[in-house]
## 1
Amino acid sequence: MKIINNKQKGIQELNRISARTSSENNKKINSIVEEILHEVKNHGDQAVKNYTKKFDGFNPEPMQVSTNDLKDAWNEIDSNLKSSLEVAYKRIKKFHEKEIPTSFTIKGEHGDLVQRRWKPVKNAGIYIPGGRAAYPSTVLMNAIPAKVAGVEEITMVSPGNKEGLINKTVLAAAHLSCVDKVYRIGGAQAIGALAFGTKQIKKVDVISGPGNIYVTHAKKLIYGSTGIDSLAGPSEILIIADETAKSSQIASDLLAQAEHDPLAASILLTTSQTKAEEVFDEVYKTIDDHPRKEICMQSIKNWGLIVICENYESCIELSNKFAPEHLEIITYDPKEIIKDIENAGAIFLGKWTPEAVGDYLAGPNHTLPTSGNARFSGSLGVETFMKNTSIIEFNEESLKVHSLDIINLALSEGLQSHANSVQLRFED
């Protein structure tokens, strides 16, 4: 972890961190993923099984997890955990119900009608990562907005362990969220199965959910034939803190990102040199006893950063340039700071709002833009699983009133038949 006491050097480091997944290695990964998708498209289930054996080490037969297994998982998990999942479910659902877009109609003075109509997609696929950890929270964050949107069928894919089993709590969350079908497959082959369809797996309209770099590349390559939520990169947090913040809390919040992934980024912007040094020491002290020490160490060593800023304005400037996935503001008056924040996936205000609150049960979605994409995009939500259609209805009077304007605009573009299509309607 670096400590920098210079704004320009801080900007350079933030740019380096933002570009950490942009490398020549991506070309090789892209080539591998293209081959996987080609095989799945042409050979369906057999290709999915072959790649699952190759990459995950088990034969996914049967691929689908039965409804009874989902029920059993729910019944078998600890009662306290069950209660916590239910609390999270209710809060997330309540928030996303407020996101449902409203259809509207505008009536013109001559009787014409223009409308925007919102409808859900019919089928959605959600990808739930496995590997280093289990993510029941990701099930809730993807399935709930899809259900709230009105999606008819939700298909979930998630890689099994070496024995071919999906984590029990993940299955319990799928049951709670009313996921319709669950398949124990992962990686680019699972994205291909959802995008193209196989004999066992129905083609979906939208795919959501985070994954490793192979999953991300697969989503990028199938986009256009199938909708996607976003191209998620490694997790990141940026904390703006002053001398009033507690160093141990800051360190813990930084490590809460670092423990996700060796590529996760943990950044502190502070106006206090003393605080910077305290947090630095606290981070390394805490890592020593961390159960995911190796992952945390790689993340902090390569992508950890502390920048000492001369004032709040510099902190805000650097934060807006980086456009973090998660932004914590732990200052004397965080509501004053937030006024000038332009780019962030989610903002957490004050010492009583660690980012973990948003990960699990605050209500807003935890699937957020990474790698600076918060400059132009936001979180996954109900609209991810919906589409809008324009409906236009003119009558004779309204077309007549506007005919000359339409004709003038059409001719200005050199489109004679556009003009004629209006003019001819008034010729006997």
Note: Residues 2-21+234-362 form a domain with the Rossmann fold fold (CATH 3.40.50.1980).
## 2
Amino acid sequence: MENFYLSQTRFDSFPLDERLLASLRDAGFEYCSRIQADSLPLTLAGQDVAGQAQTGTGKTGAFLVAVFQHLLNNPQPNAEAGTVRCMILAPTRELAIQIARDAESLGQHIGLRTVLVYGGAGYDKQRRQFEEPVDVLIGTPGRVIDYWKQHVFTLKHVQALVMDEADRMFDMGFIQDVRYLMRKLPPPDKRLNMLFSATLSHRVLELAYEHMNNPQKVQIEAESVRADNIVEHVYFPANEEKIPLLIGLIRQLTPFRAIVFVNTKHIAEKIDDYLRGNGISSDLISGDVRQNKRERLLKDFEAGQFQVLIATDVAARGLHIPDVSHVFNFDLPQMAEDYVHRIGRTARAGASGEAHSFACEDTAFYLPEIEEYTGKSIPVTKITNALLATDLVRPHRQQRERAGQHGGDSRPPRRNNNAPRGNRSSGR
């Protein structure tokens, strides 16, 4: 099937270093995506870019190719320890890790040194990476600021800056940290600057014009970002029908790999318990899952160790999980653009996929805004008795740390003999 995002522009049509072209070829990239084809002529000419692009459209490749070529064209010989030549900021650990993986793949032959830093893991180990000069620093704002304040590295020689998922920087409360770092860099006209965001809202553009040098806008409209090969359904269940409907759909559709999106950690835990208790292999990811477990969990999911990943919106952006066949919006998202991000986890790279959304009593009022944002009505699927699982086992409440225990495990947690006896509400 034709890849909706692919252009007819070849990477070798640009004046790229042969080592970079070799890296692209070895990574399997011959043709540019649309965002790459539109942005590279500008960035390779030294112009700043503010790009509107969703995850999965090739935006990471767009800025990595531009950064690598810029650094190759402008070497800094005899750089001292702690010197950073390029800084790439990402709002989440998962996105930073993914960017670093892509950088390793796309830069395998160019000889540039990439360093990754993020909160939640390996503080001293990450710190020691600055004992040598750094070509590309990839990190989350908090950890980058932490090391900078300790004088672990210097930003005085930065030649390129990338802000990825800029709108999420605002949503997650990182924008003051970002602005703090921007003020420590050389002037905007002394470096190549790129900003990418799902939307180029007023606040995002204000950030771009404040810290960039006359950035050129490159936009892929939200409507066109959504792949045509996602089959969408919306259901109108009562609250008590949501779990029977979810389990019934999973049983009938038998998804190869599915993501269930929810709005709260509490609901994620409840669904995880029900899926496991009813023989469906699952696990969950939320904001407070430890970093090492997140990485292990995502690897297990990609390896097929369990069928269903339950996620809050921490997983909606920046994660490149292949072969997701189905997305379930157990809760409709509060922000319309998050709907696009969520369903975009399926139908990657031209594949087909399905998105099933539950417009329940608590979230149905988000639907009109979603349909206005996407420019189309989502087909309504009637809930029949055949879709509702009626033989559900009410699970015991599971322990949250269950590494290596994916799905089908309905055993109760180990009893605490010191705990008081009697009935206990799950919410207390």
Note: The domain at 228-387 is CATH 3.40.50.300 (Rossmann fold).
## 3
Amino acid sequence: MKLLSCPFALLLLLLSGSSAFAAEAIDTGDTAWIIVATALVMVMTPAGLALFYGGMSRYKNLLNTYAMTFVAYCLGSVVWVMWGYSLAFGPDVSGIVGGLNHAFLAGIGVDSVSGTIPTLVFVVFQMTFAAITVALVLGSVVDRMKFSSWIVFTILWLTFIYSPIAHWVWGGGWMGAMGALDFAGGTVVHINAGVAGLVLSYVVGKRIGYGKTPMFPSSVSLTALGAALLWFGWFGFNAGSELAADGIAASAFLVTNTSAAMGALGWMGAEWLINKKPTLLGLASGVVAGLVAITPAAGFVGLISSLIIGGVAGVLGFFSVAILKSKIGYDDSLDAFGVHGMCGIWGALATGLFANPAINELGKGLFFGNPGQLLIQAVSIVGTMVFTAIGTLVVVHITKAVTGGLRVSEEDEVLGLDTAIHGERAFEIE
């Protein structure tokens, strides 16, 4: 640079302190992309997921589902900057959790840099992940959980479950040190949320009339729109996780779209074969299944692998929802475990199979000469499932004690939570 060739200018640079050097470390292209990616992921929760879940809930609970998704994003935004970020990305404490050095973002200013982007951008990007993860849990208990209990549960779960697991994988914890691969959140987000939802659904119990009374979705159209918005936002989710505007981000973008499309086709094919009708709800669900499965692998696998990952995810998601749930008999209202848990497990294992060092030198799976990676992925899956299951159970019981129970009254459940809790109706049709 000509500036540095001038001794006087160099002296001024030296005297100006570390902030000037920090500014030099920032890549404006990377920063611009991650700001856009953050906005894309933000849209996924109060818009994409709210519509996706709201449309699948019964008409009398549509607004409640939307409100619980919306408040999850709000709570996630606040908890994250107060202490969640520090617990996830603060100085490592025994490989388990981050310290509270950055509580309320202490020590992080406008000149702080993470890699090639401002640390504040990284904080907000990761915040959107935390918010959508706890919002995904909601899918297991719509129609019957108290709004107040959901608020308390969200705060506790983000603090004691999500933040430590994020630290394990991305913040310098034991899973990352072990070599576990999770590019954008297959373990941290989807397995974590799916298992938590399953535990919560068992504790809260089945909906009144479950298995006896038809429970039709309020609007498949809203669900399909929500799936489209999730698909759109997922490009920020996966390609943004590279934290740079480069070739790996471009590859992640491509395979994310491919896996989503294959997931939709796989689900449609399985449903058409078994039930003789290809439904729009199935197509929308298949898109999400494909997106979930590619998430941990997005920055490590190529095109052919993404076709396989997405196709298998679509079929697996359908059988998990249509067959596995009925055989086990749990009431996971909107199939958080069947789609996010099961397809997240498949995606994490698939990363251990298909990670290609030609795509990303940080990942090398079984089919590229490293069978040990599959074992590492399996350990990370089991570790996450055990911790999440036990931890969520503890959080659930604390929530129950604080709020006097998790479930709405039978009268309110029959009436509908839109009216009983919020005093509103989604549609005025009279």
Note: The beta strands are 92-93, 97-98, 113-114, 117-118.
## 4
Amino acid sequence: MELVILMLFCLAIILCVILNISLVYGLLIGLFIFCAYGRHKGFAWREIGTMLWSGFLTAKNIVIIFFFIGVLTALWRASGTISVIICYSLGLIKPQLIVLMAFLLNCLISMLLGSSFATSATMGVISMTLGNAMGANPALLGGAILSGIYVGDRTSPISTSALLTSVLTETNIYDNIKKMVRTALWPFLLSCCLYGVVSFFLAGSGKVLDLAAVFSREMVLHWSAILPALIIIILACFRVQVKLTMGVSIIAAGILCNVLQHMDILHILQICLTGYHAHDKEVAALLNGGGIVSMLNVAAIIAISSSYAGIFEGTGLLNNVQAFLENLSKRITPFGGIIVASFFTAMVTCNQTLSTMLTHQLCHKLEPDQATFAISLEDSVIVIAPLIPWNIACAVPLTNISAPNSSIAFAFFLYLLPLFTFIRKLHKQ
């Protein structure tokens, strides 16, 4: 019975991906299926409603933070913050090292934005454009970008995946980040070496595009536009609460929109709601986006997905899967069990958020120490989801940058991180 229920849910999600429609519809079908299962098991509708609500409460703060991120990324675009960072970064690019620089620059921007999707739509697009102009291999370049955007998506203090993991495990995000940096150090350095070697032997040629001239058609480029990004970095170093950190950065970006870009208050508020929209077509292709509206779909995915956790626990739907993973973890370490669960959830849910929640649900008994469990999730499901071609964690960034699916083979960091952690855990066993 449970297997049939899970297969029906998987079918709904896969159909959404095939038909290119929002995953929200598939998740709503799943919600109906799971509620029907709960009713079949003898639970009253009121009890089922309580289960759903208890699951949602685990992630309600994440939904709120998503809207903060929507406003933040919109105002960073409008204030010139992203443009100035990109222009300064381009000075570091050498045609002979284009693949390595694509990786590093996307690491940098993803750390500042905390979003793989936003990074792929900005620096990812720029890196791909520059690399293609220099004759770099599109698959290698796409792999470097895919790796880079998930360095920050995993480790940034304003990353929704990092925030989600800390909420699920009830751990401190800044403590988690320190541990994430340590576990990612050698995979990161080895990835840099690999991309450096690839760049050396498959060197590009050509000139770096003058994006400063492009951006200046639409906005004033001034060093002060970096301040909202610096605020994030400085306050994060002092472990200031995430929502407050983002709030201060939002205010700073709003002031810059008014003072530097000469926007009135109503225009700024509109940008917060609907996102930034440039008049120049070339600038629009690189910078348009952000805003609360852009987060509605993903917020709905989070809200619905989080409600699953309550009904799974209340009905015992996943008990057999949990038992299998517990037995498996005794042979291949708890982290090995988490990796297996991560591949399973990433393949069937088609999105990083739900796969993280399901992996947490399935594996929370494997690793009793929550601080260790948090890092195990960050070193597994967070970076495994982007390796599944039909998962939106992979499909959306590759679509944004127009890279082939073969790019997945060259996303070195995403392979090396779980591999290094698994070897370390196996050695300790």
Note: The first helix runs from residue 2 to 19.
